[in-house]
Specification:
7-stranded antiparallel sheet, alpha+beta
Length: about 160
Amino acid sequence: MNSFQDEVKIDASQLEERVQIVKELLDVNHEYYSVVKDSFTGEHYLHYAYMHLNVVEAGSEEQFHHLMPINEEDVMGLLFGEQPYSYPKYWTRSFLRNGPSGYYVWFDPTFEAEQDKNEQIGEGIITKLREFKQSGSMNEDAVRRLLDELDKAGQ
């Protein structure tokens, strides 16, 4: 059997078959955390699950699950209550999450953080261009200053 970390898409039934709870960390207010272990590879994951009430569909409940690979240090820290684990604050590396199709896929949270950073840079560039246009000064020195500012904004 392959590691889930080597797969792109994992059938939910296969995951359920292989994953065993090592320790429950929290079960409160429709949120659940536990340390789990892949019985075939010995790899550990931090499991986060939450219940969502879908009011559009007459109040039906949906369950969502996330599994983030963790190393031995993380396991020990979580088991002894010394390591924080709340989602999304401490979920800073790729993790598995389920969807409506019965499969788990990898999600990279750093992509969203990079996207937010790029949007902020873009807004800064737009502001500088708008200010440059409104200044009416289009000489060579003004253009050079603008380009220098844009270079700094993009870093």
